[in-house]
Specification:
TIM Barrel, 2 domains, ten-stranded mixed β-sheet, binds flavin mononucleotide
C-alpha cells in the first residue's frame, strides 16, 4: 500500500543540491520555513557498501525533520539496501533521482538515463516502496528533447507505490539552460493523484504564485533561488500568506553567513573552500560583493575571510 506523503508545514520545499544542501545549510533553510529539506544525491551503491565518506553526508539534525535523503543508482538491490539503511538512520522520506543530467551519472545508466527505461523505473519504485515503512518519492525531469514523457513516468511511479513526485520541468539535454516548461508540471498534476511538487525557475514570491496558478501543483521546490539565500523561504511563505513582500537587510544577510559558518563548525563540515564559496553566495548582489570576490582570491585563513565579511557591514 502506498504510504501517504506527510502533511507539511508550508508549501515550499528545498531542492536537493550537490555541494550546497549540507546539514548546516539545510538547518538554515528549515529555520526560515522550508517545510521539507533534502540531502544532495548520494550514491546508493556506496551506501549499500556502508561507505563512510558517503554515510557522513547522510547525517542530519533533529531540527531538520521531516528530512528526505536522495539516492541514485540503476541497481535495484543497492537502492533497496541503501533505502533500508537510511530508514533505520531516521530519515522520514527516501527520494530517488531520475533526472540528474551530469555526464558521470548518465554514463552509469543512473539519474536522467533511467527516464528512457520505464520498466526499470517501475521495478525500482515497486521494490523499494514495498520494502520500507516510510514514503518513497521520485524526482524526475520533463523527459528528453524528442520525447517529453513526464506524465507517463509519473503515472508509473504512482502505480508502483511512490508517495509524491517532483518534476524539474526541463529536459535532460537542457541541463540548467533555457527556461523550465511549467506546462509539463500542469500535465502531470492532471494525470496523478499523489502530491506533485513543481520545480524549475522559481526565484521569488511572484514566481511561486505564478507556478501554483499555472500548474495547480501541491508544493514548490526551490533550488538555485535558495543558494546563499535561505531567507527566500520566509519571503515566499510570508507573501503567500499575507500578500506582502519582505526584504532582508545586508546586515542580516551577513549574520546568516556567520550563522551558517557556526553550524558548519558544529557539525564538523567547515572548510576554507566552502567558507569562501558561501561568502560569495551569501553576498551576491550586495554592495561591495564584486570587490569581496576579488579579495577572497588567494585567501587561505578563516580569520581573513571573517575580516573581509565583517568589513562589508562596517
Ligand atoms: C549546484 C546544484 C546542484 C544540484 N544537485 C542536485 C542533486 O544532488 N539532486 C537533484 O535531484 N537535483 C540537483 N540539482 C537540481 C535541483 O534540485 C533543481 O532541480 C534545479 O536546480 C531546478 O530548480 P531551480 O530552478 O529552483 O534551481 C542541482 C542543482 C544545482 C544548481
Amino acid at each position: 500500500m502506498t504510504k501517504s506523503f506527510p502533511e507539511l508545514s508550508s508549501k515550499i520545499i528545498l531542492a536537493p543540491m550537490a555541494d550546497i544542501t549540507n546539514i548546516a545549510f539545510r538547518i538554515m533553510c528549515k529555520k526560515y520555513g522550508a517545510s521539507l529539506v533534502s540531502t544532495e544525491l548520494l550514491s546508493a551503491n556506496a551506501i549499500s557498501r556502508e561507505n563512510n565518506a558517503v554515510l557522513k553526508l547522510a547525517l542530519f539534525d533533529k531540527s531538520e525533520k521531516p528530512v528526505s535523503c536522495q539516492i541514485f543508482s540503476q541497481n535495484t538491490k543497492n537502492l533497496l539496501k541503501a533505502a533500508k539503511i537510511l530508514e533505520n538512520k531516521g530519515f522520514d522520506i527516501i527520494d530517488i533521482n531520475f533526472g540528474c543530467p551530469s555526464k558521470k551519472i548518465i554514463e552509469q545508466g543512473s539519474g536522467g538515463a533511467l527516464l528512457k527505461r520505464k520498466n526499470k523505473i517501475a521495478e525500482i519504485i515497486k521494490a523499494v516502496s514495498s520494502s520500507i515503512k516510510i514514503p518513497l518519492t521520485a524526482k524526475i525531469r520533463s523527459g528528453f528533447k524528442n520525447r517529453i514523457n513526464a506524465v507517463e513516468i509519473a503515472k508509473i511511479c504512482e502505480e508502483n507505490g511512490a508517495s509524491a513526485i517532483t518534476i524539474h520541468a526541463r529536459t535532460v539535454e537542457q541541463e540548467y539552460s533555457g527556461k523550465a516548461d511549467w506546462k509539463v508540471i500542469a500535465d502531470v498534476k492532471k494525470a496523478v493523484k499523489i502530491p506533485v511538487i513543481g520545480n524549475g525557475d522559481v526565484f521569488n514570491e511572484k514566481d511561486a504564485e505564478r507556478m501554483f496558478k499555472e500548474t495547480s501543483c501541491d508544493y514548490i521546490m526551490i533550488g538555485r533561488g535558495a543558494i546563499g539565500n535561505p531567507f527566500i523561504f520566509k519571503q515566499i511563505n510570508h507573501y503567500l500568506k499575507a500578500g506582502e513582500i519582505i526584504k532582508q537587510t545586508k546586515e542580516d544577510k551577513i549574520k546568516d553567513y556567520f550563522e551558517y559558518i557556526e553550524l558548519a563548525k558544529k557539525f564538523n563540515i567547515f572548510s576554507i573552500k566552502d567558507a569562501k564559496s558561501k561568502a560569495q553566495e551569501f553576498t551576491k548582489g550586495l554592495e561591495g560583493s564584486v570587490k569581496l570576490r576579488r579579495e577572497l582570491n588567494g585567501v587561505k585563513e578563516w580569520v581573513e575571510i571573517e575580516r573581509l565579511m565583517k568589513s562589508l557591514v562596517m
